[in-house]
Amino acid sequence: MKLRANSYVYIIIILLMLFVVLWSLLRMESFESKLLPLLFGSIVFILAVIGLGNEILAGGKPKTTATESQESKREETGERWGGYLANGSWLAGFILGIYLLGFIIAIPLFVLSYMKWLGTRWITAIIWSIVAPAIIYGVFEVALDVDLYLGLLLTWLGS
Amino acid sequence: MVLDAVVQALHNFATVELWLMIFAGMVIGLMFGIIPGISGMVACALILPFVFTMTPQQALPLMMTIMATQFMGGSISAILVNMPGTPQSAATLIEGFPMTQKGEAGRALGAAEVSSGLGNIITALVALAIVPLILPMVMAIRSADMVFIILLGITFIGALSTGSMIKGLISGGLGLLIALIGFQHTTGISRFTFGSLYLYDGIPLIPLALGLFAVPEMIAVATRGGTIAKTQVEIKGMQDVWRGARDVLHHKWLVLRCDIIGFIAGIVPGVGASAATFIAYGHAKQSSKHPERFGTGTVEGVIAAESANNASEAGALLTTLALGIPGSGIMAIMLGAILMLGIAPGPEMLTLHLGLSLTLIWVIAVSGVIAATICLFLAPHLSRIAFIPGRVLVPLVLVIALVGAFTFHELFNDIIVTFVFGGVGLIMRRYGYNRPALFLGYILGRLLEKYFFIALKTAGPLFFMRPISLSSIFLMIAVIAYGPVKNTIQRRRGAIKT
Question: What's this model's pTM, rounded to 2 decimal places?
Answer without folding.
Answer: 0.84
